[in-house]
Every structure is written in C-alpha cells, then in structure tokens.
C-alpha cells in the first residue's frame, strides 16, 4: 500500500512501499519544488512557526504543471499530526528551491512507518484519538522521511535534502 496522498505519483522500488520514485501522472520525472523549512546548507530542517513546528514540500511537474503536496510535518509526521506539534503554514510562505544552477529536480523518497500491530495500538485504538484514524492511514503517518533530489541540469545528487526523524 502506498501513502494515500501520493497514490498517483509514488512508484515504489521495494515490496513494502517504503522507497519510491516520483513520476507525474503525465509521465514526467522532473519537478520544480516549493518548500517551507529552515535552510541549512543544502538541506532543510523543521522551522518554528506560530509556537508550533512546520516543514512542507510541494512538487510541480515541469511539463504539465500539476502540483502535488509531498510532505507536510503537520499532516504526515507522527509527532506533527498525532502529538499535534505541527502546523500547516499558508501556501504563500513556501519558497521555490534553487540550488546552484538547479531549479528542476528528480525526486526519490524514503519513509519509515509503524508496523500494523504498533499502529493499531498507538493510533487506531488509542482512546484519546477517538477513532480519527484507521489502518488505511498507516502508510501516510511517518516516523521518518528522507527526500533525495537529483538536479535536472547538473545531474548532481542532493541526498538527504530532507532527512527528518518525525517520531
Ligand atoms: Zn506532469
């Protein structure tokens, strides 16, 4: 099973769907990226926003222009969502990513999630969460996320552009 919000564009490269390449519905593999987060060299970290924490990545297809939300700390991070430490920032605060000569990128993602038993116990059947989540949400609530980029112009790899423990 794939993460729900990436259903159409995430192409897993392992049996458990924990690693995958992103390909737009139109077949294109290069994306412009907009993000929110603290820039640290060639990486981004989680940034404080209104007494909570935020980190967001959106990717826009370079051919058809479709834009996809890849990751939001407040929506897909275990601590951000379940422990309510995250906040969704207004879209206008996202900045376009440019690294050197690169403004278009191929994107690979790696995620870590709870196993089924753990997820049932800690999320689905945890009384304070009031049945807000089902087992279908397991692949979309992450304990770790890595986003690796390859510059379309330079061919340079930006591994661990996002590399964040989320639980
Ligand atoms: Zn496209």
Model description:
By secondary structure, the chain is mostly beta strands. The chain has one domain. The chain is built from three helices and 13 strands, in the order E-E-E-E-E-E-E-E-E-H-H-E-E-H-E-E. A hairpin with a 5-residue loop joins strand 12 and strand 13. The protein starts with 9 loop residues before the first strand and ends with a strand. The protein binds zinc ion. The site of zinc ion (ZN) has 7 residues, from loops.
Keywords:
mainly beta; 10% helix; 167 residues; 5-stranded antiparallel beta sheet; single chain; binds zinc ion; 13 strands
In short:
This protein has helices spanning 73-76, 78-81, 116-124; strands spanning 10-12, 19-22, 31-36, 38-40, 43-45, 47-49, 52-54, 56-61, 67-72, 95-96, 105-112, 144-151, 157-165.
- Provide a count of the helices: 3
Distance between the termini: 21 Å
Q: How would you classify the helix and strand content by structural class?
A: mainly beta
Radius of gyration: 16 Å
State the order of secondary-structure elements, H for helix, E for strand.
EEEEEEEEEHHEEHEE
Low-confidence stretches: none
Q: Count the E strands.
A: 13
**Main β-sheet description:** 5 strands, antiparallel
Bound molecules: zinc ion
Question: Major sheet: order of its strands?
Answer: 1-2-11-12-13
Basic shape: globular
How many structural domains are formed by the residues?
1
- The portion of residues forming beta strands comes to 35-45%
Helix content: 10-25%
- Report the average pLDDT across residues: 97
């Amino acid at each position: 099973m794939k993460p729900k919000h990436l259903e159409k564009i995430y192409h897993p490269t392992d049996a458990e769907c924990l690693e995958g390449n992103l390909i737009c519905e139109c077949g294109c593999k290069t994306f412009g990226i907009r993000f929110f987060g603290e820039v640290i060299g060639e990486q981004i970290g989680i940034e404080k926003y209104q007494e909570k924490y935020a980190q967001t990545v959106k990717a826009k297809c370079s051919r058809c222009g479709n834009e996809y939300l890849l990751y939001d700390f407040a929506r897909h991070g275990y601590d951000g969502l379940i422990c309510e430490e995250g906040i969704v920032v207004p879209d206008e605060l996202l900045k376009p990513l440019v690294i050197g000569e690169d403004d278009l990128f191929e994107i690979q993602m790696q995620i870590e999630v709870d196993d089924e038993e753990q997820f049932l116990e800690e999320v689905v059947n945890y009384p304070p969460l009031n049945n807000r989540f089902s087992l279908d949400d397991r692949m979309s609530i992450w304990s770790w996320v890595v986003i690796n980029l390859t510059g379309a112009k330079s061919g340079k790899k930006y591994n661990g552009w996002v590399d964040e423990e989320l639980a």
